[in-house]
Amino acid sequence: MHIINREIEGKSAGYWALLCGLGILVLIGLYAAYNMEHHGHVITGMNNQIVWGLPHVFAVFLVVAASGALNVASVAGVFGKKAYKPLAPLSALLAIALLAGGLAVLMLDLGRADRAIITAWEVNPTSVFSWNVVLYSGFFGFTAAYLWTMLDKTAKPLYLFAGYGAFIWRLILTTGTGLIFGFLVARQAYGTALLAPKFIVFSLLYGTAIYVLVLMAAYGWGQRALGDEVLRRLKNMLQIFIAASFYMTFVYHLTNLYFAKEWDFERFILADGGLYTTLFWVGQVVLGYVVPFILMAAPATRSNRAVIAVSAILIILGALAQMYVTIIGGQAFPLELFPGFSESSSFFDGEIHAYTPSHWEWMLGIGGVGIALALVVFAVKVLRILPESLADEVADPHVKK
Amino acid sequence: MLASWLKSAALGALLALSPLATAGDSGAGVPAPVIQKGTGDKCVADTEYMRRNHMKDLKHQRDQTMHQGIRTKQFSLKNCIECHATPDASGQRTVLGKDHFCQSCHTYAAVKIDCFQCHSSKPEGNGAMHPIVSATDGPGSRTAASMRHHSLGKSPNLDSPISVKDFAGVLK
Amino acid sequence: MNNFEQYRRRFLGGALATAGAAVMPGLVLVEVAHSRAPDEPVSSKNRWGLLIDTTKCATGCNECVTACSKENGWTQKEVYSPQDPQWIRKVELTHNSTGAKHSLPVMCQHCEEPPCVDVCPTGASFKRDDGIVLVDRHICIGCRYCMMACPYKARSLVHEDLNDTQLARMPRGKGCVESCTLCMHKIDAGDNTTACAEACPEHAILFGDLNDAGSEIAQRLAGHASREIRADLGLNTGVRYTGI
User: Which residue among A41, A110, A341 places its CB closest to the CB of C96?
Assistant: First the structure.
């Protein structure tokens, strides 16, 4: 059966309520940004020890998830899997939207957000941030082009080029995001190129989880048919990505545990770190990996749609916990200026740095999520993103007719 | 696209400045700037030149001082403040405030400056007098043209149109 | 000024200096002896640095911190909030196994290969030709990447409005990152010292030109063992310590 993409009607009260709700989130985020700009970062919980806080947890999560959200489209366009083709436009759209949300948070958190445009002409070739200005723009460009070639038949000749371009670019993009931390030699939590592949694997998991949730919401609320086959494939993908993420996390900590100089840091994250230890074990590992993996593998629950949705939500919560541990836990552990000595000073040398995010930071972070989702909700109304039906007999190329 | 948009915004700001070029034209409805006389005999360059070019000279000097440690006085912001600061109600000399040199004119021209978000608006030795143009700088009727080649290193290209970069962070 | 222009100038400057040195060695020597004129750019002939003798530095003494705060206009406090900027702080060390105690000031180490400069997206973090690492607040966007990258925790973000309390000689502002400037305004004025070095009652802080073999700092470094903080990172700091 031929697959037809169509705009959603978007006239129901529910649609407008959703769009308004997301709009309010965006306004909340902008209000927080205005206040942070007006009063300075003094109103946040961030300080000269924890210099990147909750906004960066949200921003890096969204940026990483953005590149992963493109995964479904890449499976269709680059690896030629027919079953994923009808799913591809939403995948590309979600990638663009998530990146926009993440970047907005990153930009609005700047000490001088009014000068963010300076990064466009004062380029420092050695700065990973400077590379990222190019990487983000390129990702927008390639992914938008890819989306265009999927939606417009006249652009078909560019389909493969845009698809491959977006795929390669997303690998470079997430490498760049990982290396923001990976190239920080000074801090024990970072300073390893392992963070680049680790972030790529994480991105596949986070992006696909968000994709699953958005897809289920769009088809549930839009009253369109969504077959089990589509969800089964996505669920299998999530399981593979959980296993890979677990592996990367394992190797990262094993590497650190092998180096005596990293023991104190590992003891902090894995055993003595209070909130960070809890977030790591309970949030990232148990809720983020173990529970959803079991739920999606166990014969009793694996074909239940609600279970897939719950698993995706757990994966996202685990993802936020992971970002919190990586970004804030990594800074909370003090820099070691003089190995072998215990240090103390008025500048909090040698002590675990405290951090409590203020409500402004929550508001800004949630505003970024609002931007991403509002873009999606708006775009599916004005563009032919979603197939009219993803029922098994339509979407599954192997279905017996 | 964004750059060109910003450029037109900058040009708009330039148009807003244009009443200054035809000095004496009191904009309809907008109170004319209060220009308090600074200390000393004359400015570091003639008035016509300063009105049109002070922002370029300041920006040029700013980069030279910051990156090369060049501390010539002629176009240093500190030097401007030294002379143009006038006492406010409490007797503190400053260039900011409704009737003070920098702010009154910039309010009139509707150009927001962010110099004083970081720089002090007060002279260093409050009330201390400094010669405006030292003997070595050369007194007398130097024209704008000769001023252009005075400062060391590459002079700013004063004939070039103001680019969007000149306004980075200045306009809000 | 864009990066390219800086590189070009540095290259041309270097080429001219080399040519000058080849033709008139005597003249170059005379130039080194003079302090720089206001219109003369800084050059890599100099590399300013500090040598800190920790054996003379006393626990509880904060004279260098007080002097820095007065000179540069940041606020010294009895108890700091984690958001307060501190350009220099006294660090107390106790050796984990021997119990040996040291007290020493830590500020920007003015690395030859500064990580803050590497990571800065706009080039606001930069190293002056004479080795001083600075923040150009005119183009700093307040991203704090440099603070993440600095191994010495030398940098602070200004978290709140300073309400025009800045000193004329040291601009500072909300939303920008700042740190020790090695008192560059004093160096530019030919003072040949820093506020902390001047203030130390024990003369534990020695300021000087690491590139001038005849300077006291170069001679002391040549004659005595000294160390850099985190020497393992290979950053070649301009601030060195002896006695630890």
Answer: A341
Torsion of CA C128, C132, C136, C142, to 10 degrees: 130
Q: CA-nearest residue of chain C to A349?
A: C91
Please identify, in words, the CATH class of the domain defined by C43-242: alpha beta
Residues from chain B contacting residue A120 (CB–CB below 8 Å): 3
Q: How far is C56 from chain B (nearest CA, A)?
A: 33
Pairing of strands C125-127, C177-178: unpaired
Which domain, by its residues, includes B84?
33-167
Q: Where are the domains of chain A?
A: 13-395
Q: How is A269-286 classified by DSSP, letter by letter? A: IIII-THHHHIIIIIIII
Q: How far is CA B88 from CA A196, A214, B130, B150, C163, in A?
A: 57, 61, 20, 34, 16
Residue C136 has φ and ψ, to the nearest 5°, of: -85, 100
**Residues in chain C, total:** 244
State the average pLDDT for chain C: 90
Strand partners, B94: B86
Note whether residue B11 is domain-resident.
no
pLDDT band at B20 (very low <50, low <70, confident <90, very high): very low
Give the global pTM: 0.86
User: Can you tell me which residue has the tokens 């166990």?
Assistant: A298
Task: Using pLDDT thresholds of 50, 70 and 90, give the confidence band for residue A395.
Answer: confident
pLDDT at residue C39 tops 70: yes
- Chains contacting B (3 or more CB pairs within 8 Å): A, C
Strands C48-53 and C239-242, bridge-based pairing = parallel
Chain A: give the shortest CA distance to residue B27, in Å: 29
Distance, CA of C83 to CA of A372 (rounded, Å): 31
Check C38 against B71: CB less than 8 A apart: yes
User: Do C209 and C193 meet the contact criterion of CB atoms below 8 Å apart?
Assistant: no
* Domain A13-395: assigned CATH number: 1.20.1630.10
Q: What is the DSSP letter of C75?
A: P
**Average pLDDT of the residues in C192-209:** 97
Nearest CA in chain C to B119: C171
Give the minimum alpha-carbon distance from B68 to chain C in angstroms, rounded to a whole number: 5
